[in-house]
Amino acid sequence: MAEHRLRRKLTRAGCLCLFLVMLGAVAMVSFFAWRSYRDHLGNVEDPEARTAQALKILGGDRLPAGYYAMATVNMPGMLQAVVLSDSPPDQEGRIDHFESSLFLYMESRGGEITLEDLLNIWPGDLGLEPGDRLQDGTIRHFGVEIGYRSARGSLIHGRRRLDGVFAQLSFHCVDGGWERAAIWFQTAPAGPAIGPAPFVTALLGGPADLSAVEQFTAFMDPCGE
Length: 225
What we know:
This protein is α+β, with helices and mostly antiparallel strands. It folds into two domains: about 1-45; about 45-215, no CATH class. About 30% of the residues lie in helices and about 35% in strands. The termini are far apart.
């Protein structure tokens, strides 16, 4: 009888401990989410703060020419993300759209980062209809290997449908447990003008141009190598 009561007490104690652990985990996640949201709100009207945070996440000392830090997300040990737009900040320091090009970067713990995951970084509705594959390749910067794959695609942004090309990038770092991926989209003439290599003049300097992707990512060192 005494042994039965002891088992019941131990079971209750174990359940209580498990509940407290789960409660602590929820509280920690909530805290980091709140702090990330607070930091995001604080950076909304501060282009310099957004740029500094974006550079910290991307591991560079400058942003690509013609791009501006639109938003960043920082949840230490869990998730970091950067949104770059080709639209400059308005008079209040805000950026709420892009003209013809954008860059989405994300790093997180866990499984593979999908195209949908990257699109969800955008603060609003954003969709992509992939088209024909154009080119695959590998880029190496700072000893970091970057997987590259370009394709035609149509970006759906609200009522806008932008035909162009995009490159999916995967950053392979030596540290385990982290996934790093990005997408770079740029509008381009639709139809026959977008063809396989050799690329037409309209595509030179964009995501379908491997040399342009090399230059675009040359400043990035998210692995800290």
